[in-house]
Amino acid sequence: MTVKKLKWGILGCAGIAKRAVIPGLHLSELNEVAAIASRDGDKAEQTADEMKIPVAYSSYEALLEDDSIDVVYIPLPNHLHKEWAIRAAEAGKHILCEKPLALTAKEAEEMAEASAKAGVLLSEAFMYRFHPRYEMIKEVIAAGEIGEIRGIRSAFTFNSAADKGNVRFRKAWGGGSIYDVGCYPINAARLLLGKEPEAVTVQALFSPEHGDVDMMASGLLEFEGAVSLSFDCGMWAAFRNPLEVLGTDGIIEVPSAYVTGEPGSGNFFVSARGERREVDVPHVNAYTEQADHLARAIINGIPLQFDASDAIRNMKVIDACLLSAEERVRVKL
Hints:
Layout: E1 6-11, H1 15-26, E2 31-37, H2 41-51, E3 55-57, H3 60-64, E4 71-74, H4 81-90, E5 94-98, H5 105-118, E6 122-125, H6 133-142, E7 149-159, H7 177-193, E8 199-207, E9 213-223, E10 227-234, E11 236-240, E12 243-247, E13 250-254, E14 268-272, E15 275-279, H8 286-300, H9 308-327, E16 331-332
Helix pairs in contact: 1-8, 4-5, 5-9, 7-9
């Protein structure tokens, strides 16, 4: 039986779209990339040719006017998320918007309101959540294998400091490491604990060489029961993205918590009662899984696992982290 696929339009030719999201969509049985748009028509045409996309538009508006498009993916710089998500919603398109959803929780609320009013779904693109290992990790925790959770540690760093023209170094555009990669440990801790933090404290390295954005940040998120997330993130440090869940009786270690590639890269380790075992995780494309989850919600009229309200809550934590870093104070939520 032939499945009718949802048609996607891509707003912009960002690296994440070309490197990961579009290839993931090409693997999907529920979705297909029907069009791509750029303010540079030649760039749109070139990307369409490279990525085997049927239609290229020289403006975002033209893509939104295409009645055949069901879903829009927004990989634009952070300061443009709100405008184009709202415009996509008003055009009747469902939306997958890159993380972080917006610059502030207030912006995220406005995006959610516009989507609800238009009757479309709005999803934040944290692809890692759709990799099967996170449900498997939650199962290990729920089974009591590591006892009671005492804390979570995580990091996400890479070094792009030499690329002085990088959009991540523009403060007004939502640049900085907390927005770009710190959002992952924050989101993962909320996911695994199923709770919201009560307070945050963050110290950051703001670099005049890079538009005064936070090039490195270290933080503490306080949850009830004296459980905390300690994390660091950066765009001026060696690459790594581990996560560790510490329990009273054991530890879960995820060497590559947010990035997966080759088979086996999604595996994690459980150490408990004197034994350490590697948990084999099915090899999947998290970007395909993310798109298919959204597609099933649209086609079947079922709720998203992570709806816009979750993105708003995540943005409230990011707001607090940025305030703490700027003011050098502990911020209660």
